[in-house]
Structures are given as structure tokens and as C-alpha cells.
Amino acid sequence: MKLEPHAHSEGQLVYAAAGALATTTERGTWVAPFNRVTWTPPGFDHSHRIYGSTDVRLFVIPAELGGDLVAYPSVFAVTPLLREALLVLTDRREVRPGAYERLLAVVIDELTDTPEQSLHLPEPRDDRLRAVTDLLHADPGRTATLTELGRTAGASERTLSRLFHTELGMSFHRWRTTLRIHHALAHLTNGMSVTDTATECGWSNPSSFIDAFTTVVGQTPGRYQADLAAFRH
Predict the structure, then answer these.
(1) Residue 219, C-beta contacts closer than 8 angstroms, at least 6 positions apart
(2) What is the pLDDT of residues 45-91, one digit of tens each?
(3) Would the pLDDT of 232 be above 70?
């Protein structure tokens, strides 16, 4: 399921209590599995893509509260306290006046730490770099080297390597790994096995995939699927 680009006059938190959610803005794409929540400040055009059997919760953040959060789209790790607060805000009817606002203030307090950037995939503006990233978006499992991709894009490996660092703030290897993790999250959420996901996304063996996934997401793919199944029930 995909929601086309749109913007809001107020801030928005989107939490996939189950499943995974991708949010795309002019600054790139963030993927938020059930242990992350996305933040989009007012005025940013953004779109969403939902993967798997999801349970998406939407929260409007008034300007007077959103000012305490970062001024750009981000993803935050979901602590146990934050998860419970988000679920209560959408599952329970407000009984005492002001209870909703007090709980929302707790949510904001939990989100004032540094946002999680490991799942952010920036997108280029340079035409040569975009030609390379478009090829990888079309086939994340593609094993071509930067030199080989550069021949298609009409740029040298040295030039492309420099562009990845100066324009995207990361190496080619890190960008491609992040792209593959995005796709791996979608596959795992949809029930694909760890081994098949590793192969589909371009890893030479499951062990290297597990290491990369754990480094970026903070848990093994097997633990991610087990936790996802537990939350769904």
C-alpha cells in the first residue's frame, strides 16, 4: 500500500505497531519497523509505503509541542515506555480531561534524544550519482562494483566515490547496504525466510546478512521476525 506525496500544517508521528513503514521526503527515505517511529515536521512533502500486515498509528503533533523535536524528517527508536504510550493514545478513550495531552507530553519527552539515522537512505541530486542509485533501486541485489556502475553512468569510480561522500554523507558501500536493509525489512515483514532474504538482497551468505542487519537495525533478522510475530498477537 502506498500513500502519495502530501504535506501537513502540523507535525506528524507515524508508528507501525506491526509491520514496517517507509517514509520518503526530499531528504531521502526512512524505514521504520515496529521498533521505530517516524517524525515529519509541518510543511514537508512526504509519502508512505506500508509493508506486510501492518497496524499503523497516526499522531498529529501541534506546533507548540513539535518545536521541541528536530526540524527535519527523522526516525526514532521506540523504547518500551514510548511504545506503550503510543498504543494507549490510540487504543483508549480519554476518561479524564487532559489525560491525552499529558501522555502526549510523555511521548515528546521520549523523542527529544538524538534521532536514529542508521535507517536513513539519502537520495542524490547529481545526475551521474542518480543514474547509479536508480540502477541499485531497481535491483538491490546487484553485485556490480562502483567501477562497473560508473561505466553505465558515465563517471569514474573516483568521481562517484567522492559524490557519495560529499552529497550523501556516506560511502557507496554504506549506501548500498542501507538500501539492501530497507528491502530486507520489507521481505522479512512479509514472511520471507532469513536465508531467502539474504540471497534476494545480494548478500553472499546468510551470516554476512545477519551481521549487517544487526549492525543497522540493532537485532538479528530472526529476532526481528520473532518480535514482529509476538507483537501481532
Answers:
(1) 35, 227
(2) 889 888 766 788 888 888 777 778 888 888 898 888 998 999 888 88
(3) no
What is the Cα–Cα distance from 58 to 38, expressed in whole angstroms? 10
Q: What cell was used for 182?
A: 530497507
Structure-block grid coordinates of residue 173: 558501500
Whole-angstrom distance, CA of residue 37 vs CA of residue 59: 11
pTM of the full structure: 0.83
Which residues are CB-neighbours of 14 under 8 A, at least 6 positions away?
21, 23, 32, 37, 38, 40, 48, 56, 57, 58, 59
> How far is residue 50 from each of residues 16, 23, 57, 70, 81, measured CA to CA in Å?
9, 9, 12, 24, 24
Provide the pLDDT for residue 233.
54
Count Cα neighbours of 202 within 13 Å in the Cβ-side half-sphere: 20
Q: In sequence order, what are the beta bridge partners of 37?
A: 15, 76
Packed helices 127-138 and 146-153: angle between N→C axes, nearest 10 degrees: 120
DSSP state of 211: H
DSSP letters spanning 66-117: HTTS-SS-EEEE--HHHHHHHHHHHHS---STTHHHHHHHHHHHHT-SPPB-
